[in-house]
Amino acid sequence: MNTDPYRVKAGGSVHLIDWRTDDDGGLSKDEGRTLTAELLTGLADWQERLNAEAKQSLLIVLQARDAGGKDGTVKHVMGAFNPNGVQIANFKVPTEEERAHDFLWRVHQRAPRAGMIGVFNRSHYEDVLVTRVHGLIDDATANARLSHIRHFESLLRSGGTRILKFYLHVSRDEQKQRLQERLDDPAKHWKFNPADLTERARWDEYTRAYEDALTTSTDAAPWYVIPADRKWFRNLLISQIVLDTLKDMHPQFPKVNFDPREIEIE
């Protein structure tokens, strides 16, 4: 599958209206699920190589509106990985200690070490999204932070960390349906937060904030706009991009300092 059409080109402006939320890649759901199952096997194999080599790391950033599918992506895609080789971080409202430092302080601590795959379920981009929409920072501060983020990601990349950033692009109608499902199903009530409706009312403001955030797409830390109305296609596309990246990183099993053929276990 060619994933280039979903990648945000470096150096340009972004208009989310240009990106479909319901794309299916010309596939049926059954075809997509079959392909995804094959890709997930490959993800597990290449993660084992990455973990064994312990020289590189991969950071996966997931950003989306409420009910956009971040948790589902972690479950259905990252679930292919051995948990021993994955670090998952979820950046919520900063603690008092975190607010006493610069906004990237808490993030840098959670960057994956060599051999690991790090998953940010929400990330440092919250500090140029929620804060901006709610008027906690002005445009000048937001732009300065976006510049700091570019440098921060460049630092990680130079240290051996590959970065993939996914914006799960869900439509307003699909979000409404998913939020309603949480209300209708008692088993999903815990996932519903009335505050989500406040954020939903600021749809256009979040759109503008996300469009600015997506301009941080670079060759070293690309953004991908993932059509997220169809969960199966979301999983397929992200699986393909992650697998392609791991193959490009080409981690290798370390050489051993003994000849297995000369060892006899009694």
From TrEMBL:
Keywords noted in UniProt: Kinase, Transferase
UniProt feature coiled coil, ranges: none
Highest taxon of the lineage: Bacteria
GO biological process annotation, one example: polyphosphate metabolic process
Record Pfam families: PPK2 (PF03976)
A GO term for molecular function: polyphosphate kinase activity
All residue ranges annotated as the Polyphosphate kinase-2-related domain in the record: 27-252
Annotated protein name in UniProt: Polyphosphate kinase
